[in-house]
């Protein structure tokens, strides 16, 4: 790592602690006397430790140094997925909790600020270094020397404190902005439930209809013919399942097809206000409204187009399908199946509550106002994250503070 600060091997400043080994008979899925929460790789998300979906292990198996302390950095050290290996999250207080054998703990020695150390594990240098090591190995494991041999720029302890304070404040602003966006998502769900009630219980006694009665087109696309030659750097967007998020399209990584391929795939050509539903794989049930982005677009075979008659508002349908209650009913359709998938007959047979169109339209207006506010917050979040990334680069290059 190039820096104005002098760099040293990370082993000079850390202790590595291996996670708890356990047998299936040693753990419980629910809290239990004599057991302690245990974090696994799935509990490390977006640079943070999350405490949902934990398991509990016999406390007698846990050594004292395997209890998570303030400042500890928990790393996914072994996984079948190369993308998982190396991801990290830092504890901001002592926690009566431990971590599994596929993870490891990085504990700061007294000669480094733990918060400064935590930000080092969020640098591009760290990510690239781990990725290079893992991609060159047959087994997706991080050994101690992979971490120990990393070079870290070390300013004075007082400068480390200043750096950590600046980055903490920036991270705090990012977290607040994310919380505001999440609050707007919850507001939309609350408005939906207030206006329409529980979609499955129908406690407002709306008419129940089959979705197919209010559609003019239910179909998905296909894989473009011609292999890689069908794709171009710029052209007609081909929307895939990864582009369909819950009630929102994300076209950041959309692929493009030629005009000729677009014309040959007429049944998968989109119109403004088509409802798009993922019908295969882990993202089954994700749904969003196509707002005519780019004016022309297609979908592939993993995304279903639902084109509605005037009796159903597309925003109402999207939020109806996205509701937790209806998502549960989709999972029931696939219970016991070897491959998660929805077919057109199942989709047309969806039972849909049909409130008065005026009420559906009112909901759509509220949604669009909330989404407009979310877009402003999202742009602000992107600016904050760009600023944070810039500060991180300047920090470890030694450009933020003179030492």
> Mean pLDDT, rounded to whole units?
92
| Proportion of residues in helical segments | 25-40%
Determine the oligomeric state from the structure. Answer: single chain
Q: Provide the CATH architecture of the largest domain.
A: Alpha-Beta Complex
- CATH H-tier superfamily of the largest domain: DNA methylase specificity domains
**CATH fold description of the largest domain:** Adenine-n6-DNA-methyltransferase TaqI, Chain A, domain 2
What's the main sheet like?
4 strands, antiparallel
Q: Which spans have pLDDT < 50 for at least 5 consecutive residues?
A: none
What report would you give on this structure?
The protein is an alpha+beta fold. It has two domains: 7-154, Adenine-n6-DNA-methyltransferase TaqI, Chain A, domain 2; 207-354, DNA methylase specificity domains (Adenine-n6-DNA-methyltransferase TaqI, Chain A, domain 2, Alpha-Beta Complex). The protein contains nine helices and 24 strands. The strands form eight sheets. A four-stranded antiparallel β-sheet has the order 2-11-8-9. The chain has a four-stranded mixed β-sheet with strand order 3-7-4-10, with no helix packed on it. A four-stranded antiparallel β-sheet has the order 14-23-20-21. A hairpin with a 2-residue loop joins strand 17 (244-245) and strand 18 (248-249). The radius of gyration is 25 Å and the shape is globular. The two termini are 17 Å apart. 31% of the residues are buried. The model has no long low-confidence stretch (mean pLDDT 92).
């Amino acid at each position: 790592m190039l820096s104005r600060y002098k760099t040293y091997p990370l082993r000079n400043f850390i202790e590595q602690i291996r996670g708890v080994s356990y047998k299936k008979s040693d753990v419980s899925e629910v809290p239990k006397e004599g057991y302690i929460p245990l974090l696994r790789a799935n509990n490390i998300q977006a640079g943070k430790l999350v405490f949902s979906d934990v398991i509990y292990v016999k406390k007698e198996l846990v050594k004292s140094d395997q209890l998570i302390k303030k400042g500890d950095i928990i790393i996914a050290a072994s996984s079948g997925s190369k993308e998982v290996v190396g991801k990290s999250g830092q504890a901001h207080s002592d926690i009566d909790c431990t971590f599994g054998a596929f993870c490891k703990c990085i504990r700061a020695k007294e000669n480094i600020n733990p918060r400064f150390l935590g930000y080092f594990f969020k640098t591009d240098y760290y990510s690239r270094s781990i990725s290079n090591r893992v991609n060159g190995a047959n087994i997706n494991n991080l050994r101690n020397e992979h971490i120990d041999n990393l070079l870290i720029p070390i300013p004075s302890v007082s400068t480390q404190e200043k750096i950590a304070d600046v980055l903490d404040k920036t991270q705090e602003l990012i977290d607040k902005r994310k919380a505001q966006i999440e609050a707007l998502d919850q507001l939309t769900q609350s408005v939906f439930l207030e206006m329409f009630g529980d979609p499955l219980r129908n406690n407002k006694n709306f008419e129940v209809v089959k979705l197919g009665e209010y559609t003019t087109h239910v179909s998905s696309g296909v894989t473009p013919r011609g292999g890689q030659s069908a794709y171009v750097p710029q052209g007609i967007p081909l929307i895939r399942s990864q582009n369909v998020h819950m009630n929102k399209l994300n076209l950041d990584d959309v692929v493009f097809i030629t005009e000729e391929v677009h014309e040959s795939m007429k049944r998968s050509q989109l119109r403004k206000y088509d409802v798009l539903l993922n019908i295969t794989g882990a993202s089954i049930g994700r749904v969003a409204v196509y707002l005519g982005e780019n004016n022309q677009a297609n979908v592939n075979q993993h995304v279903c187009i639902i084109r509605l008659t005037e009796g159903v508002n597309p925003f109402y349908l999207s939020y109806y399908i996205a509701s937790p209650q209806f998502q549960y009913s989709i999972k029931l359709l696939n219970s016991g199946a070897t491959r998660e998938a929805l077919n057109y007959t199942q989709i047309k047979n969806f039972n849909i509550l049909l409130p008065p169109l005026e009420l559906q339209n009112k909901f759509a207006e509220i949604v669009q106002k909330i989404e407009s506010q979310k877009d402003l917050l999202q742009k602000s979040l992107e600016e904050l994250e760009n600023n944070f990334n810039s500060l991180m680069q300047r920090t470890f290059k030694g450009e933020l503070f003179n030492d």
